[in-house]
Write a structure and sequence with these properties.
5-stranded mixed barrel, about 200 residues, about 20% strand, 2 domains, OB fold (Dihydrolipoamide Acetyltransferase, E2P), alpha+beta, about 45% helix
């Protein structure tokens, strides 16, 4: 290791130093994540981690239009990739300034990739809030009879957002809907489903 270090030029040593620090922090982050640590705190100082409102905005296609480049993860990627790329490119026949420019460009490319990957991973999160409007058009089964002409509330079981739910339901039909009958959701009134017999 010492011989390898001594054979590097001063510029290569600088890039190797950046690469070593970046790689060490990357390994530390990975180990912390494996033990459930650091996923909330690693970027908090840089105002990076989004809360659930941000996640909802991303999932809906709103907000966070740009990538968050200047994060701890972004800087770690930048220094790791540009550092080791610089060491490699400076050992080739390329002119030094070209090698340095290419290694910096590679670091920025890594930073952009990390920001993009982090944004995409946030889109996979879900806060689990039930959206009643997702029930419209779906069919369910009556669990408690539903009185006719909205004269009272019954209950149905229905699959919404990949979960079986038991929800209040009313109908505008002239006849009550008995237990076990199939119904289709035609509308939603706050927390109550409006259904019709199938």
């Amino acid at each position: 290791m010492v011989d390898w270090w001594n054979h590097l030029t001063l510029t290569q040593q600088v890039f190797a130093g950046f690469g070593m620090v970046g790689t060490a922090v990357l390994i530390l982050q990975t180990v912390m994540l494996l033990f459930g640590l650091g996923h909330d705190s690693m970027d908090s100082d840089a105002d990076v981690d989004a809360d659930l409102d941000d996640v909802d905005d991303i999932a809906d296609g709103n907000g966070l239009d740009g990538l968050r480049l200047f994060t701890v993860r972004g800087f770690v990627a930048f220094f790791s990739i540009s550092g080791w790329l610089g060491v490699f490119l400076l050992s080739t026949a390329l002119p030094s300034f070209v090698s340095i420019l290419l290694s910096i460009a590679g670091g920025f490319a890594a930073m952009i990739f990390v920001a993009w990957a982090f944004k995409k991973s946030l889109q996979l999160q879900d806060n689990g809030t039930l959206q009643m409007s997702n029930a419209i058009g779906r069919t369910g089964r009556v669990y408690l009879r539903i009185p006719a002409n909205r004269q009272g509330c019954g209950k149905i079981t229905i699959l919404i957002q990949d979960q079986q739910r038991e929800l209040d339901a009313v109908t505008a039909a002239d006849q009550e809907i008995p237990v076990g009958a199939s119904v289709r959701v035609v509308d939603v009134d706050q927390e109550t489903l409006i259904v019709e017999p199938v």
